[in-house]
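Bumping with the actual sequence this time:
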Amino acid sequence: MIDTDEIRSTLNHLIETLKDGEQGFRDSADKLKYSDYAATFRAIASERASFASELQAEVARLGGKPETSGSTAGAVHRGWIGLKAALSGNDDHAILAEAERGEDGAVKAYRDALSKDLPTDIRKVVERQYQTVEQRHVEVRAMRDAAKTGRVASSGSGAGPVSNAY
């Protein structure tokens, strides 16, 4: 089993990733023209905040100081989303493409965490969150692809617009 310091570090990295995603989805929601996409992004932002809180509690339980904000890289990415949106006239496809790129990073962060030898209780939390993050990645990709073709992705589970292509 990895040591407690490494577990806390792994969880804090996920917290930063989640905080980056939370802020990125909130910022992007304000720029999206299609209201269903914006509503989905706001729901994902809230979900990421909840996930971060859950992991912060785990870090504290392990005697560590949980991260409370995102990373510098995340701030830079959000700035890039803002710049790209401004240059493209707040084009939904451009915003969705950047969000999908950000989701690539979130999925990778979870895969990296799950490649480590985590305690069973923490692994279950991380696996559950990973499944949701991965599903949201698929949804964002479907929205991006729909916006590129000028069609709107159909709504699936009521959680927001999704593609029928999974």
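The tokens above came from a reply further down the thread. The CA atoms of residues 31 and 89 lie 10 Å apart.
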